[in-house]
Input
Amino acid sequence: MGVPSVFLRTFGCNFKCAGFGMPKGELSREVEDIASRVHYFNDYKKLPLVSTGCDSYASWDPRFKDLSPMLTTDSIVDSIMDMLPHKRWMSEHLVITGGEPLLGWQRNYVDLLSHDKMRGLQELTFETNGTQELHQDLKIYLHKWSISRSMGAITFSVSPKLGISGEKWEDAICPDVIYEYSQVGHTYLKFVVATKEDVEEAQAAVDEYSKRGFRGNVYLMPCGGVEKLYSMNARTVANEAMRLGWRYSDRLQVTLFKNEWGT
Ligand code: SF4
Output
């Protein structure tokens, strides 16, 4: 948080997370309503923000796919370079996020990271839901990539989905996958929670990951893509993190930018 970073958001996700912000057992219909009016929008940035379900729905729901640009590696790199304040890499991080960025797009990351203009990049983070194994080619490439850089050059920021998301435990909690990430880069877990029950579920998940050999940090993050919802439980979540000896993660993009598209 607070580190100058460029976010590359890829399209597609294996989850829907329609349970966020909803009473237990219910799923959000907000995106369904927006999808029924999709022809009124010509750019994903004009789509309404939602207060329940996945706040990044435009980055994975096929009904909105045509609103996102399809870009070549060259044009992605040029856009990134244009965003950098000095038009070259200094201390900025590249964060590859989604949707779920470790789906089929894995095939393209070697091409992206080996691009001439990407040579100066020193720190790379994958923001993932922790369910996708790494392709062998990417794994080998990342090993080499990190050797020529400082410790911690690669981070897997894993946000495993608990019951609060509406996704099933058996699909969402994948200890072997997290262990694999931890062999390639610095890996931490970040759980989105709203109640004590969610925190207990996070503890059960951490137990599973630990049994498989995971030894990284654990963060709790309050649920809520809109400030009102999020600020309601931020303090409780911070207290729970302190009680368990875990870390607390804020949602800076909600406070600073009200979670608008592109933040
Ligand atoms: S895993 Fe992330 S991007 Fe995918 S639906 Fe859930 S919250 Fe949204």
The chain has a mean pLDDT of 93. The beta strands are 5-9, 93-97, 123-128, 154-158, 186-193, 218-222, 247-248.
